[in-house]
Specification:
Layout (H helix, E strand, L loop, with lengths): L1 E4 L5 E4 L4 E4 L21 E3 L5 H4 L2 H8 L2 E4 L1 H9 L5 E3 L3 E4 L4 E6 L16 E7 L2 E5 L12 H4 L4 E5 L8 H11 L3 E5 L11 H10 L3 E3 L6 E3 L1
Parallel strand pairs: 3-4, 4-5, 5-6, 10-11, 11-12, 12-13
Antiparallel strand pairs: 1-2, 1-14, 2-3, 7-8, 8-9, 9-10
GO molecular function: hydrolase activity
InterPro entries: Metallo-B-lactamas, RibonucZ/Hydroxyglut_hydro, UPF0173, UPF0173_UPF0282_UlaG_hydrolase
Keywords: Hydrolase
């Protein structure tokens, strides 16, 4: 499986059979200015919540790729009104697609759509695909509900926000790993805006001292999971 980072909380997972794009926010992000969104391919687009830094390119990319959008019904309903033809609305629960299983899980955050309408509940996702279990937390603070994941999954990777202010910071993310017993973390939602800038060297060292791995790919970089 391959992971490509596009900045903020946007990334692409390439499984054996499908390309899964998450929280598309690329064109408004100056840090992602070298990413050509017209070259992005996706079979599914998974959206954690309705804030602009997670849906800015959703409509354009959904139309470009003809991907199916997976999100809360309020988000898929908004996308459909913008002309997106293929949507799969979910809420907190699990659904098995022909390529793997997706569970939407709670996130402690807020959610509103670009037109000011209600964006439904913010969420994260746990994927079971290609023999791996991967948790993308979405935008969330540290929450005790994360402990439930340890009762259901043996997570291989956790994709966690680490920028603070709006979400968990590095220290909170470390605590979270002890809730769901996952030692491999990919950091997202950091350095895009001044208020979520972090010292990446310090972050890497904190994880190393806890005998955990923090991966911070460059924007546009692809790594193997």
């Amino acid at each position: 499986m391959k992971y490509t980072y596009y900045g903020q909380s946007c990334f692409l997972l390439e499984t054996a059979s499908k390309k899964l794009l998450f929280d598309p926010f690329i064109s408004p992000n100056p840090l992602a200015k070298n990413i050509d969104i017209k070259a992005i391919e996706a079979d599914y687009i998974l959206v954690s919540h309705g804030h602009g830094d997670h849906v800015a390119d959703l409509v354009a990319l959904a139309k470009q790729t003809q991907a199916t959008v997976i999100a809360m019904p309020e988000v898929t309903g908004w996308a459909a009104k913008q002309g997106v033809e293929k949507v799969h609305g979910m809420n907190f629960g699990k659904f098995t697609f022909d390529w793997g299983a997706v569970r939407m899980v709670p996130a402690t955050h807020s959610s509103g759509l670009p037109d000011g309408s209600y964006g439904g509940n913010p969420a994260g996702f746990v994927l079971e695909v290609d023999g791996k279990q991967i948790y993308f937390a979405g935008d969330t603070g540290l929450t005790i509900e994360m402990k439930v994941l340890a009762d259901i999954y043996n997570l291989d990777y956790a994709i966690l926000p680490i920028g603070g202010n709006y979400t968990m910071d590095v220290d909170d993310a470390l605590v979270a790993t002890k809730y769901f017993y996952c030692d491999k973390v990919i950091g997202v939602h950091y350095n895009t805006f001044p208020v979520i800038e972090i010292d990446t060297a310090v972050a890497l060292d904190k994880f190393k001292r806890e005998n955990k791995t923090l991966l911070l790919p460059e924007i546009g970089e692809t790594i193997s999971l």
